[in-house]
Amino acid sequence: MTWRGIEEFLAVVETGSFTAGAEALGVSKSYVSKMVSELEVRVGAQLLLRTTRRLSLTAAGDLFHQRCLDMRSSLVDAERQMAQFQERPVGRLRVGLSDIFGVTFMSSIVAEFGARHQEISLEVVAYLREADLVQEQFDVVIRYGRLIDSGLKARLFGYLSYCLCASPDYVAQHGWPQNPADLANHACLTDLGGCFHFNDDGAGNDRIKVSGPWKSNSGIALASAVRHGLGIAQLPISIIRDELMDGRLLALDQEWAFYDKEVWAVFSPGMMPVATRAFIDHLAVSFEHRKLRPWMRPAMTALGEHIRPVR
Question: Of 156, 172, 260, 263, which has the maximum CB count within 10 A?
Fold first, then answer.
């Protein structure tokens, strides 16, 4: 069943003749007559009684006419509801997050957005591996690092800044590495890949293979090992902010020791609903495209506003 012929049928009934119906639609009378005849064949019933003096609906035509009016009303209502998506932030928004280093910071930003836009129903799904995030299942996916070229659209809205950190006891006993190569002389706590990453300095030092007594695919587990003095870890400043602020953990304050991973909002091409646009704008304001450093006290304090524990 298609809509073909229905608009012509409705026009004829509403205007009272094939001629007036054709004029209302801006087409020929013969075209309207053909469309209505095809419609009657398709539905298997005569809808109109045609005489030289008058045009009237059959019993079947009267029932079909009412159903068509209901369908057109539903279509108008659906279009009106769809228009709301382009007028104000409403509807459902599915967000995909990577849980490689925990989602406390990012999920808090999403929750803050939800509190400001309560007409939006948020679904936040976290995956342990970023590779498991299926883009088509989400309105927005938060991805880190360099993006693979694709037909999707993306907006860079900030950086996930990593630092080399250790406990005060570890630093007192072993000191800090002087350069990336000196990491070979330290116990390094890493993800399962066994590497530390650094900003590209043009000398090929952006990825260093290291070794140590502890590996984990969880940033929370790595942070725990660092607190116990097992070695040096490379962790996002956002997940150890409190420890850095109160001195329970120390960060190496040499610029070479930081790594700023790009953070992207990735979304499908096409017309973007207002809810999606508002969410991406919220991310941009929250991150401010900033590369965070532990000595940036105002920025570190502001960061805490996003990661307050629930009491």
Answer: 263
**At a CB cut-off of 8 Å and minimum separation 6, what does 244 contact?**
163, 165, 237, 250, 251, 294, 300
The first and second tokens of residue 44, run together, are: 């298997």
Distance CA 105, CA 302 (A): 12
Tokens at 268, concatenated: 């499908």
Would you tell me the crossing angle of helices 59-85 and 6-15 to the nearest 10 degrees? 110
> In the structure encoding, which two tokens stand for residue 206, read together?
């952006």
User: Residue 264: what residue type?
Assistant: W
pTM of the model: 0.65
DSSP string, 183-236: GGGS-EEB-TT-EEE----SSS-SEEE---S-B-S-HHHHHHHHHTT--EEEEE
* Cα(282)–Cα(276) distance, integer angstroms: 10
Output the pLDDT for position 309. 41
Q: In this predicted model, what pLDDT tens digit does every residue of 163-206 receive, in sequence order?
A: 999 999 999 999 999 999 999 999 999 988 899 999 976 665 68
Question: 39-81: per-residue pLDDT in tens?
Answer: 999 989 999 988 777 888 999 989 999 999 888 888 877 766 6
Which of 164, 160, 156, 157 minimizes the C-alpha distance to 255? 164
Q: Could you give the 3-state DSSP secondary structure of residue 162?
A: strand
Distance of CA 75 to the CA centre of its chain: 29
Q: Of 53, 51, 52, 63, which Cα lies nearest the Cα of 9?
A: 63
CA 300, 306, 307, 309 torsion-angle sign: positive
Q: Which two structure tokens, joined as six digits, stand for 253?
A: 């304050």
